[in-house]
Design a protein that fits this description.
With 292 residues, this protein is α/β, with parallel strands linked by helices. Helices cover 57% and strands 11% of the residues. It folds into three domains: 82 residues, Multidrug-efflux Transporter Regulator, Chain: A, Domain 2, CATH 1.10.1660.10; 83 residues, Methionine synthase domain (Methyltransferase, Methionine Synthase (B12-binding Domains), Chain A, domain 1), CATH 1.10.1240; 122 residues, Cobalamin-binding domain (Rossmann fold). This is B12 binding protein.
């Protein structure tokens, strides 16, 4: 059983530490345990309780009302909310809880429910991208283990591949050719696989190379495949803060227009260059592809 500090809890549930303390003082909600040296900590059960409380609070239940409920009443209400697949805040909490428990059944059920109800595009935009950003930050700060991030990423990856296989590629008179890859030090394929899904839906051709492609290899691939566009996704904090340097290295080994997406594109100022198109969100990506 893992124990959490109040700062860990703050990061995991998205509620400020002073608010958590106020709930404890006013309503005796989830009081922390203490070590022999009087250091406060929370257990995994405490975390689950707080996640349930946040779920109800974000859906209109006042804390004063929640404080009067039994654990069973809270759990029953949360179970009812869990099937509201269009409620993105609830589904992000569901995925977070399932990740902490390594619960593949709940994670996959939540993912399938969202996709069946909203489709993959809206699920990615409203649920999965915000969830993955949160998980990535928790991993980087040590609040969760790397294994948690890998657990979630691999299940999402597997589901997107299933969705790609389900797409009936439309016939297009003049399809474009896209080279999809991740540069050195970038290993998170989720966004790139989602791009492959979008391109297949639009009837375009893709060559998918996956993660951490050495820069010198790009010259040979471009010469052989002759793509109309190259597409990369940048999300890993391992790339450093100088994202423009990474983009520059990629462009030095390409002679085709480059499309760049990913969470880092919205966080840093991207230098304007010829043949470079930054796509900051799902809306930008879909609009660009629809206009081709």
């Amino acid at each position: 059983m893992k124990n959490f500090s109040i700062s860990d809890i703050e990061a995991l549930i998205g509620i400020k530490a002073h608010t958590i303390r106020a709930w404890e003082i006013r309503y005796n909600l989830v009081p922390p345990k203490r070590t022999p040296t009087n250091i406060r900590y929370y257990t995994e059960e405490d975390l689950k309780s707080l996640l349930n409380i946040v779920a109800l609070n974000e859906n209109g239940y006042k804390i004063s009302r929640i404080a009067k409920m039994s654990q069973k009443q809270i759990s029953d209400l949360v179970i009812q909310l869990k099937t509201d697949w269009k409620n993105d805040s609830i589904q992000i909490l569901n995925l977070s809880n399932a990740t902490l428990e390594y619960n593949e059944e709940v994670f996959s059920e939540t993912l399938a429910g969202c996709i069946d109800e909203m489709g993959l595009v809206k699920t990615m935009d409203l649920v999965l991208f915000p969830f993955m950003k949160k998980i990535g930050m928790l991993w980087q700060t040590g609040t969760i283990d790397p294994s948690h991030e890998h657990f979630a990423s691999n299940l999402i990856r597997d589901r997107i591949i299933v969705e790609i296989d389900r797409v009936e590629k439309p016939k297009r008179k003049h399809p474009k050719r896209f080279l999809l890859f991740l540069p050195e030090a970038e290993m998170h394929e989720t966004g790139l696989l989602f791009t492959r899904y979008l391109l297949k839906k639009c009837g375009h051709e893709t060559l998918y190379l996956g993660s951490e492609i050495p820069y010198p290899d790009l010259v040979k691939v471009v010469a052989s495949y002759k793509p109309d566009y190259a597409f990369i996704v940048l999300t890993s904090l391992n790339l450093g803060k100088d994202i423009n340097k990474v983009i520059g290295k990629v462009m030095d080994n390409l002679n085709v227009p480059l499309l760049v997406a990913g969470s880092l594109i919205s966080e840093f100022d991207i230098l304007v260059k010829d043949q470079l198109t930054p796509l900051k969100n799902v809306c930008d990506m879909t609009e660009f592809l629809e206009e081709l």
